[in-house]
Amino acid sequence: NSRGAASLLKDSIPITEFSASGPFEGHDLLRRGFTSVKNELLPSHPLELSEKNFQLNQDKTNFDSLRNIQGLHAPLKLQMEFRAVKQVQRLPFLHSSNIALDTLRGNDECISFEDILNDASQSEVMGEPHMMMEYKLGLL
């Protein structure tokens, strides 16, 4: 009976009205993972934002000097290569070393803080592989 089904749908309450909102909203661990307090904190020092954007600022400076020396085509070609390298990634639950990006930037021969203390087994990103892939593909 199609008329009976339509009246049931009209009288039903959407599930979204049952979800909590505001400061007491529950966090969905399966879809969003654990909350990180580090992301919610404000910078503690004025230089912290500068340090976070160091690589971006260095790339801009390099592109400007490259444009002045070789012309407009050189930084455009390099930016296209950066975008192509950034699109190639591993699955979301696997750690990636980004060796191609380091090679393009010239950081492949340098040993930095991240090379020694960036242990993948200590990462907060690790989670359930199937859930992470379904979330990335938009199935959840």
TrEMBL record:
A GO BP entry? proteasome assembly
Keyword Lyase in the entry? The reply is no
Q: Does the keyword Chaperone apply?
A: yes
**Keywords for this entry?**
Chaperone
An example of a Gene Ontology cellular component annotation for this protein is: cytoplasm
What family is it from?
Belongs to the POMP/UMP1 family.
Q: What protein name applies here?
A: POMP protein
- Organism per entry: Dromas ardeola
Gene, per the UniProt record = Pomp
